[in-house]
Structures are given as C-alpha cells and as structure tokens.
Amino acid sequence: MTILDSSTSSHPQAADSAPANLYSRAQARTAINDGVTMAADEAHVSSYADRFAWAVTAVMTLLDAPSAPWGEVKNQHYRQAPADAPADDETPQYTREQVSRAVNSGIDLAAEHTGRPYADDLDNLIVNAALTLLDTPDADFYTVATECYSESPRVVRSWL
After folding, report:
1. Fewest CB atoms within 10 Å of the CB: 23, 74, 94, 111?
2. How far apart are CA 130 and CA 133, in angstroms?
C-alpha cells in the first residue's frame, strides 16, 4: 500500500512532480551500521557478531545489485576494502524504496545463510532501526520502539 503525504494526496499531479528524496550509499551504510549497533546494544550482544557483519555486507551488496546471489555477497564480504570510498559514495542516488528493499532482502538473505531459517525479532529490529535512522539519523531506541512497534522499549527489548 502506498501512503501519500497529506499535502499531495488531494493533488495527484503534485506527487508526480515532487522530487523524490534520494539517499547516498554513505547514508545507507551509516543507517544499517547504526541500526545494527542499536539492535546489538539493546539485545546485549556484540555488534561484531557474524550475523551482523553478514547482514551489513548483504544489504550493501543488494543496494547496488538487488538480485545478487549469496556468492556475490560472500565475494564482497571477503574482498579487501578499497583505500578510498567510491567516487559516487556521497551522491544521492537511491530512493527510500530501494534502500528498504536492500535492507529487508539483505537481512533475510543473511539470516538464511548464517544458520537461521528466517529473520528473527533481532533481525526485524535491525530493519526497523536502519530505516528509521535513514530518515531520522538522531532517532533513538525509544523512537524506533514506539513508532515502528507501537510498544514500549521494555516490551520490544523483551522480544530480543
């Protein structure tokens, strides 16, 4: 279901002519890294755990190649990091929908290939935290819990 901003819902032409908010690779990377950190902190596990490293690699791989197979994610994971960021790292080029698809698919793919048959509550928190932080970089766990789950942080924490 598509939700239109109330300022454009009565004027369909306005929605078509309004520029889409675009995000850079750096913004997406920061959001997923910060989402992982928030989720790991709330679950009291190390953010350096394999499940998180694979998830971040999968998200970033799928951001540029949405149908990349797990083999490509593995290649990216083990690849030597380049000394410099790509020239277009700061260029706004991804819609929120593209980032959302990469985050959701990357988390699912990582869960599947790291011994979990499906994404669990901790994985779901990563998704919600990352997407919230993409739009609101200074959001905290309270914001994610109340806005994404309509629950208190204590209740959401009990699921982890």
Report:
1. 74
2. 5
C-alpha to C-alpha distances, 155 to 138, 141, 146, nearest whole angstrom:
22, 12, 10
Distance CA 104, CA 59 (A): 8
In angstroms, rounded to a whole number, what is the distance separating the alpha carbons of residues 132 and 1? Answer: 19
Number of neighbours of residue 78 by Cβ within 10 angstroms: 8
User: Residue 13: its pLDDT value, please?
Assistant: 43
Within the chain, which residues score under 50 in pLDDT?
1-15
* Model confidence, pTM: 0.84
